[in-house]
Amino acid sequence: MRLKSLLLATTIVTVLHPAHQASAAVHKSTKATTPAKGTVKTTGKKTVVRQAAATPRRPHAVDSNSNEQMIVTGTHAFNRRARDSTSPISVLTAATLRRSGQMNLADAIVRTDPSITVNAMGADAGALTSSIRMRGLNPNEVLVLVDGKRRHTTANIYADAGPQQGSTPVDLNMIPASAIDHIEILRDGAAAMYGSDAIAGVVNIILKKTPHGLNMTAQTGANAYNGDGWQYQLGADGGFGFLGDGYVHISGQMYHTDHMVPNTTDVRTVPGNSEYSGYNVPHNSNKILSTPEETRENLSIEFGKTLTEGVTGYGLITYAHRHSEAYENYRMPSVAPTLYPYGFSPLETIEENDYAATLGLKGDNFFGFSWDLSSTYGADEDDIGNKNTANPNLIASTGTSPTTVRAETYRLSQWTNNLDFRRQLKIADLVPVTVAFGGEHRLETYQIWPGEVGSYADGGTQGYAGLMPENAGKWSRDVWAAYLDGDFHPLKHWDLDFAGRFEHYTDVGNTENGKVSTRYDITKRIAVRATISNGFRAPTLPEENFSSLNVSPTGASGLLSTSGAAGKSLGAQHLKPERSTSAEGGIILEPVDGWHISADVYQINIRDRISGAGSVYGDSAISAIAMTGATLPTGITSADVSANYFANVGSTRTQGLDIQSDYLLHMHQYGNLDLTMALNLNRTRVSHINTNSQGNPYLNEQSIAYLTSTSPRSKIILNAYWTIGKWDVNVRQTRYGETTSMLTYQDQTPASLTCKGQSLQYSNVCWGQFKNTPVWLTDLEVGYRLNHMWHFAVGANNIFNQRPRRLTKYLNYLGANAYDTDSSGIGIAGGYYYGRINATF
């Protein structure tokens, strides 16, 4: 779509700038804790506002709504609104997320922010953990904060080849949605402020801190077209005060979803097909494409109290438990006839405990500086299991096999300590400046325990082979950091911000990062802004050390450690940090009072990107896997055996455009209509391909597509929120642009077809290009407020049951893998209908 037509669209249908949405439907706790001016100190049920010292409000910034929230992300300045920011920031309120109709936080953000997407479906254990992609980059390149503190990541690595391979992101769904006051999304490189991972942007989750009130919610729904995928969620949060000005806010949530199983036909069950095995089993026995079944409980406790004059203590505790199960490909009765005479579908499971605790002290006058001292410990522990399975080689040698095994256990922890200072002053009594500086220490620890012997011995269990003792180990590193930031106002209408950060990693060395941001308000209706920065992302401990073997009905895939002999035999080298350079420029307009438009262009160059190197197939892969000590199962096709490893594969350039607009239309007796529009255009290209230790390129045509074209080229969200009397209606139109994948030719490809001198079936030099064409999704929610306490809503997401295009026959493994699960456009689940009740006391 041409830029001209997109700009024209903003004059017809305007979109929500999330900060304005916050003013339209602000949560009660926001009103209590974020007044229009000054710093805030909560004391029991009373809020004390201390006026900020020197930083002036921009004289041309129109404050159309006094409830608009202050931001704390991407700046150290006081009293900065999202509209006044030098970098593009969106604010999503709890009400906005609730109206998305999604029960999971990650899905709710995807529904409301165009720069964020998720994969159509995860693979293997990767399907059991939520992750988001920003601006088409890897989930590892998005930094997540909770109340401004770095959040620990999951230990469950995404091991399968694809655009998310290697990611161990923060699992947003482990934070109870009922605890969230609002979310600030910074779409800008911010490594100079926050350190590693902040290449694509930053998601800062701000939790509720009110010492009063009780809120409860219940929602249930299902896929109406399939009649499955039932979900329900129960949530509650409330606060109370103690000892005068102390406060505690407790939030809890319980969530459950059943499998949602699309209709597919496994070709092995169809008589007359060349792969038909002669067994009379249902055609839909293969449920590999179903969404996982999941049960999750979440809890958070936020607390604080003034300890002495000018010093406040605070803390946060979060805990979550998840049990989840995902189907693997159906195994025919011939695989383990003594145990499963009718065949079986292995289930990959996760038993997960995720917890974190923060304790801190903050004050407002240490030689004139406000200060914040905190310590945060967070960890994620995962038992990965395999049930309804069998080990065929073990049956052959011993006559028996376990049917339920623990395949491996992971644990990843982060202990982060911060000391921050901030002060407002004037240079020569003329130039207002906010100075901030501080330091950080982080200890990261990663540990792998092997699975039970039956899970890996003699080729391992079907669906997922467990990790061997050779795969296990414990690794750790220390990270030391220091930063300095200065926010200047050289002129009345001009803001200039400089930030610098130094970090030392005990395993990958030093890095220095800087950022320069500026904004100039030309008139009260026109402002321009720009940022240039460099950043980095250190390789994660799982990327450096993880290795595994995954077994399919016809083959296997091995992920090799970069430091092991097996990986080195295929050309693996020691991982280096990614290095990025980002530039962004934008304009902010208010053509008429209340109509806000922002447009920002950006470019992100990343050098030495970490991703899965192009897979090696056949005898080379078999030899490398054997070097790990693993044994492949019998009866597989050698051409369907692959191996790869993580590498600094090359350099990429990401270019794009963000446009946001909103207008609140007051229609008097006909209510209020909040019209919003958000657009992200995004394109990534590979600018350089690195070579391995053997001189071979790390990337091939398939892995290049993983990096460049599996994310939508565009995403548009048009939203209309109408309130009249006791009724409210939310209508949302979302357009996902095209994605393109280079897929492997699968089992249904005739062996007689050749390409570049080899069989096209499972070829590693020729791939099938597959495009998911653009799709519009329609969401609708209708709500009714019975009184000030009770609100009822019914809704439907993806009313018309849009799904991705189905794969062609040659690309559809076993006939049951009907969708391109590597793309991050629309999901495979189709339409979802729900009902929700909210109560506030």
Structural write-up:
The protein is mostly beta strands. It has 12 helices and 40 strands. The strands form 7 sheets. The protein has a 22-stranded antiparallel barrel. A 5-stranded mixed β-sheet has the order 5-10-11-8-9. Strands 1-2 form a two-stranded antiparallel ribbon. Strand 15 and strand 16 form a beta hairpin. The longest helix has 9 residues, at 619-627. The two termini are 48 Å apart. The model is unreliable at 1-67 (pLDDT under 50). InterPro entries: Beta-barrel_TonB, Beta-barrel_TonB_sf, Plug_dom, Plug_dom_sf, TonB-dep_rcpt-like. It is found in: Cell outer membrane. Residues 1-24 form the signal peptide. Keywords: Cell outer membrane, Membrane, Receptor, Signal, TonB box, Transmembrane, Transmembrane beta strand, Transport.
Helical segment tally? Answer: 12
Q: Low-confidence parts, pLDDT < 50 over ≥5 residues?
A: 1-67
Biggest sheet, in brief? 22 strands, antiparallel, barrel
Report how far the terminal alpha carbons are from each other: 48 Å
What is the mean pLDDT? 89
Strand-pairing-aware structural class: mainly beta
Give me a quick take on this structure:
With 841 residues, this protein is mainly beta. The protein is built from 12 helices and 40 strands.
